Prior knowledge:
By secondary structure, the chain is α+β, with helices and mostly antiparallel strands. The protein has eight helices and 23 strands.
Amino acid sequence: MTTNIKLLLLLYCLSLTSCTSGKKMEKFEWMPTECAPELYPVEIYKGHLVYEDGNSIYVPSKAFVTNGWGEVGSMHIVGENLKPVPVRLNLTWLSFTEDKFFTGSFRLPQEKIAKLFREGYYDASRKRNGNYNGIVVGMAPGGRVAVWVQGIVTQQVEVGWFQAHDTVVAMKDYAPSAGNTSQHEFVDGMMKTEPKITENLKEHGYNYGLWDSYRERFSWRPVIEYRSGGHTDYMDISYYNGEKEELALETLAKNDFAERPRMKEFDAYWNGLDGRPYGLIIIFEEAEVFAAFKKLHDSAPEKKIELFLRLDPEHQPLVEIFLRNGTETLPLKHSKIRIYDNV
């Protein structure tokens, strides 16, 4: 009797395994890519986005990745166009500035990623629905790893933030053609080709904790006032944490406060009273933005913050920029600004 029960249990377990392994995985059209901060180069030794069935796609890498935090890197056309949603990231890379390998295996939020792929977003610049079509893997000093789901240019959402640990990789495995060159000699040779990176390292060090601080969020919203009249069609905001957001006219009409990271770049598109289309690009100065958010938040942490822009393309100053919280207003004087005819 006991033997029969065990046999039935075994058959039941096997049937469950069979059903699970035979489950059809939902697929979407997307490609992987990689990134690293501009002055902190890396190279991926082994990187794979693993699917639920155990198969995977590799994360491409250049020999010296310095394309910028959250930016698109290498794009290799491999495998099928339609791919399952990955459930895990296995990653080992060399950090040139630290002369150190890092590695880690990280569980990804499968359902969150699938939801983004399924629902997409509204592409205001093209006035149609857009699809997320990429997964970006970022590596920062100290073994920090970020993962974003990427849309077309103006939409990107962070879906993962992880900590890797240092490891050892034999040079004969990492760079077989390097012969008897040691890891330090290999790294030193690469770093000598990029004097700006070496100079930055001497001046600022490894900046441990910087990319963690980029992820801090505040309750804020953008507000635009037009001295000469006009209305905003849409705006694009790039954040220091690598996320990007496009706000369409309908969203701007509500203009709710939201928990957002600090802004890095701001683009707006509007029509004047005469129907003339304009474009605006603002690149914020990092230290000034960080100091302003800190001062407003520390003085009144319960108050919400507005990024307030006053625009007048016909008169000077063309643009005035402030951060304010209802009690205190701080001008952002060091931003780079350009207004142009958006024809």
